[in-house]
Fold this sequence. Notes:
By secondary structure, the protein is α/β, with parallel strands linked by helices. It has helices at residues 8-103, 131-143, 166-173, and strands at residues 114-118, 151-154, 178-180, 187-188. The chain has two domains: 11-105; 110-188, no CATH class. It has three helices and four strands.
Amino acid sequence: MARLSPTSSEKAAAAQVAVHKAQEKLDKARADEEKKRDDKAAKERSKREADEKRQRQDAERASRRAAQEQTAAERARHAREAARDAHVATIEAELAEARATLDSRPWEDVPEKITVLFMTAEPDGPERLHIDREIREIQEQVRSSKLRDSIAFEYPPRGAGHRPASAPQRGRARRGALLRPRCGRRHRAA
Length: 190
């Protein structure tokens, strides 16, 4: 059978099918484009939210770090204040001790004249101690002090023939005499 030429109703139906297919393609393209836009917007929103979250976390870390530094500064300040207070307390105790010493008036018990007996020994050999020079320096210091008239020196010069045992005996015989050992401490004679 031979094909007949399409009628106008068939042509209209074919055109309608073509329009319908074109409309479906257009709707599909619009839906794909909208989906791409939505996906892109979702990615941007996700990235923006991640950036905001990172910024909040950075701000929180900075805030914690600042709080820790402030706490450390406060502790250091408290430690400095405690050390200063302890130092002040030590100085106040020393001052109280000095005032108590002054209040006891220790100078009233001192004899009017003090005799200082220097007893020395110098080793033989090349390593000499230069005791004569040290004695001269001490005597010069005493002579330049206000109490120079209250202090008398007894120092047997080298080669004077004194026996070591006789010097301490002479020092003990004097009431109130001071013995001064080489180490620099003073002891009352018994």
